[in-house]
Amino acid sequence: MTGYLAVLIFLLVGTGIVLFTFFLSRLIRPFNTYPEKSINYECAEDPIGTSWFQFNNRFYIFALIFVIFDVEVIFLFPWAVAYGQLGLYALVEMVIFILILFFGLYYAWKKGVLKWV
Amino acid sequence: MLEMIISSSVQVVVVILVVLFGCAYSTWLERKVLGHLQHRMGPTFAGPFGLLQPVSDGLKLIFKEDIVPDSVERLTYTLAPIVSFVPALLTFAVIPYSAEFSFFGLEFKGVISDLNIGVLWVFAVTSLGVYGIILAGWSSGSKYSLMGGLRSSAQMISYELSYGLSIVGVIIFANTFSMTELVAKQASDSILFFENWYILKQPLGFLLYLTCAIAETNRAPFDLPEAESELVGGYHTEYSSMRFSTFFIGEYANMLAVACVGATIFLGGWNGPFFLSFVPAVVWFLIKVFLFMFFYIWLRATFPRFRYDQLMRFGWLVLFPLAILNILVTGLFVLL
Question: What is the interface pTM, i.e. ipTM, of the complex?
Fold first, then answer.
């Protein structure tokens, strides 16, 4: 556990440095706000509508596919680290597992989900 | 116990300072190298060879007014720079930079924390950086920021798969997740100093790692999130002053982190040639990291930006199948 203690110290010092620089710049920077300054940047035009607009739902689809394959990666890591003791059986099993998931990727590709136009 | 805490605290502070210094001078290196590659001089005015330029940039950013637009969500807006910077820094906690050494009677291990899940730690922490970017894009309340944040997160999660998979081949060879053991394995029973480096056993894995690392850190030619010609500044359009520079330092810290991880996993870490053993190990490590950084800057000067659909197609239909193929071929090779 001592290894994680050092990581915890690292986390605290790292966060502390960021907060310290924020605090330091708060002490010395100028404050001069007026309404025009606190409008959103939109190429010098007044912003039209809210900025939380509808966006392309492909971003969601990519996120979903990512979750599926990220789970595959999670399974691959322990498989790889124990591979020396597992042998041929593990390789065959992993090939089958990957093939099933690749079939899914092929399906998504044929459906046109991975195309971005 | 207390001695352990003192020695690791000293080490933590020194490493963080070195990383921040490295980030600052990466900006100098980038501008200087880019300048010379384009037949310009780069920064020359502040100090000899423009060496004081990062100092003056930092001072300027601290003295800038912090403009917060009215439409932001305050909590997430404040949190986002910290969330994107701290994970980039945390990667350095498991990177072995030197052999064991003692300094003023304190024993140092040459690594802040030798976690037995070092490689997993690196990937877990690196992927946390996405949260900072999507929070920044969402909470800024600006259309450019939201577009930049969405693009960036979609890109990062797409390339994260191949980024993780590119290492699996090395893990199959090494049977360990610990970074120090990876370094030790690359140095053991070597007659020449480099023939056990994993770059020679995993050339495809190394190329995949290099490509995905550039995409993960949002660098050119994969720098669509910041595509300044179309999205102004991407997810940090509405940030100014220290908050902006925290994003900026975080980006460079990320670059340094992937360079350090690449040097450790593929290029033998801090091991150098045995006939030059009087040179400290940390120097060899820094040389390898410098090579990575120089390569990044060189790429930026050479390649135009990808188009977004090309980028996604390249990630999913080229890099990802290649990474899987690399793993299966490696597995077969180890069996035979």
Answer: 0.84
**Do residues A11 and B86 make contact, with C-beta atoms less than 8 angstroms apart?**
yes
Count of residues making up chain A: 117
Which of B57, B86, B81 has the alpha carbon at shortest distance from B236?
B81
**For testing the chain A interface, which of B1, B76, B91, B171 should be mutated: the one with the most A CBs within 10 Å?**
B171
Q: Find the helix or strand (DSSP H, E) in which B101 lies.
A: strand B101-103
At which residue do the structure tokens 């300048």 appear? Answer: B35
**A22-62: per-residue pLDDT in tens?**
888 888 888 888 887 777 777 777 777 777 777 777 888 88
Phi, psi of A56 (to 5 degrees): -55, 125
Residue range B268-293, pLDDT digits in tens: 878 877 777 777 788 888 888 999 99
The SS3 assignment for A13 reads: helix
Tell me if B82 and A116 make a contact (CB, 8 A cut-off). Answer: no
The sign one gets for the Cα dihedral B47, B52, B53, B57 is negative
Residue A117: inside a domain? no
SS3 content of chain A, % helix, strand, coil (to 5): 70, 0, 30
Asked whether residue A116 is domain-assigned, the answer is: no
> Nearest residue of A to residue B242 by CA position?
A22
CB within 8 Å: A38 and B67: yes
**A104 membership: H or E segment, kind and range:** helix A88-110
Residue of chain A with shortest Cα separation from B69: A38
For B86, residues 6+ apart whose C-beta sits below 8 A from its C-beta are A11, A14, A15, A18
How many residue contacts between A and B have a Cβ separation below 8 Å?
Answer: 206
Backbone angles phi, psi at A11, to 5 degrees: -60, -45
Domain of residue A12, residue span: 2-110
The count of domains in chain A is: 1
Chain B residues with CB-CB distance to A71 below 8 A: none
Indicate which CATH number applies to the domain containing A96: 1.20.58.1610
pTM, 2 dp: 0.88
First to last CA, chain A: 50
Token digits of residue B171? 């893990």
Rounded-to-integer distance, Cα A111 and Cα B186, Å: 45
